Amino acid sequence: MSKKTHTRREFIKSSTAAAVGVGIGLPSMVVGRQQNASPNDKVVFGLIGCGGMGAANMRNFCTLPDVEVAAVCDVDSSRMPGDIKFVEDKFGRKPDVYSDYRKMLERKDIDAIIVGTPDHWHALNFIHACEAGKDVYQEKPISHNIVEAKAMIAAQKRFKVISQVGTWQRSDPEFTNSIAYVRSGKLGRVTHCRAWIADGTKIGKKQPIAVSSTFDYNTWIGPAKFVPYQENKTHWNWRWVLNTGGGLTTDWGVHMMDIALLGMSKSQDIVMPTEVTAHGGLWALDDDDRDAPDSIEAIYKFKDPDFMMTWSVLRDHPGKPGHCTEFVGADGRTVRCWRGGWSILDPDGKELPKEEFPKAHNGHWSNFIECVKSRAKPRATFGSVAQTTIVCHLSNAALFSGETVRWDKSKMDIVGKAGKDTSAYDREYRKPYVLPKY
Ligand SMILES: NC(=O)c1ccc[n+]([C@@H]2O[C@H](COP(=O)([O-])OP(=O)(O)OC[C@H]3O[C@@H](n4cnc5c(N)ncnc54)[C@H](O)[C@@H]3O)[C@@H](O)[C@H]2O)c1
Fold it and tell me: Which atom of ligand 1 is nearest the CA belonging to 219?
C-alpha cells in the first residue's frame, strides 16, 4: 500500500474516532471516509462477482491512476483466474481471494466495493458493504424487488456511503446531450416518452445436473428460492429467470427508461409515475427454460409534468435502433438516443440540426473516484437509480398481477394491494438470509 493511502487511513481513523467521541453515535464498524480527504489518495477496491460486468468495472477503474485492487471474491473459483491475473499484471501482486464477501468486507484497508453479482444478491451485498462503511460502485438494477430497494435506500442514508450505480449511459454524450436538449425546453412540451429493447435471447432447455466442484451453488442461489442446479440458469443467464432477475425490463429498462425519466426531471430526484399497466408474456420464444416474458408493452402515466411513457420488449423495431429512448414533442418533433448516437427528427423523420451541450469532464468510473474523495454526489446517485429501478419493478408488478399498479412518491410505496403480491414487489428470503431494514 502506498504511503499516501496509509496517511489517509490514519486521517479516517482519527476523524471517525473523534465523531464517536462527540456522541454522533456511528457504529464502531463504520469507517467511511470523511470530507477533506486528500485528493491524492488511492482508492482501494474489493470486487464481489468476477468474470462478468464486475470484472469489466474493475478493469475500467484500473485505467485510472489513483486506484488499487486489494481483493476479489466469487462463489465460483472458475470465474476468477482472469481477474486474478489482471490484477497481478497491473499491480505486480496477486489480489487476496475470497469466496465469502463478508470476510472481505471486514478488511479495513478496502475503501470501496464493486458489486457485480446477479440481481438477487445485490441487496445483501450492498447493505452489508454499507454496514462495513465501504463506498459502493453498485451494478444495476439496484435490487431484485421494490422492498429490497427501499431497504437499500435506508441503509445508504443511514451509513452515508457514496454510491454510484452502473447506469453509465448517464455519463455518455449521446444521452447527456439528449437529456440537456429536452430539459432546455427546445423540444417544447413533451407528451410521450418511448423506450424499447429488441431481443430474443434463448437459454435453451437443460436438465438439472451435478454442480461443478468449483461452484458453491448453494451460496450462489443465496436468498432466492432454492431450485435444483441447471447450468443454463446461472452465470449470465440468471437475468432471464425470475427467481434471480427481472427479465429485460430490469436488465435494459433500467438503462433506457432512466434516460427518459432524467430528461423529464429537473434533477436526479426523478419524476415517478402515478400508475402503470402492462401486457405481455412468454409468447415469442418456445422450447426454452426462461420464464421472464419476451414480449412486453407497459404504459406509465405521470402527473406534473403530464406525459406518458411506454416501455416495450419485442423482437424487432424496423428502421430504428434495437434499443432506444425517444422523447416526442407536442409539435411532432422527436429526440431519439441510443448507444452510439442521438438525433432530432422533424414530424416527417428528417434529421434536424443538433446542439452539443457541455460534456462532463470525466467518465462514469472516474466520477465515482472523485466523489469517493470529495464526498460529493456522483452522477448516478444510489437514490436516483433506485427510483428508476422501482419504475422497472412497477412494470413487472403490473404485468405479473394483471392489474393497474399505482405509486405514491411521497410514501415511496405502491398504493393499495394491486401489484404487491408479485415477485417484483417482495420476496421471502431463504433461511438463514435476512434483509436488514434500517
Ligand atoms: N451496467 C451495464 O452495462 C451492465 C452490463 C452487464 C451486466 N450488468 C450488471 O452486472 C451484474 C452482473 O451481471 P453479469 O452479467 O456480469 O453476471 P455474471 O453471472 O456473468 O457474473 C456474476 C458473478 O457473481 C458471482 N456471484 C454470485 N453470487 C455471489 C456472491 N454471493 N458472492 C460472490 N460472488 C457471487 C457469480 O458466481 C458470477 O461469477 C448484474 O447486476 C447485471 O445487471 C451491468
Answer: 31
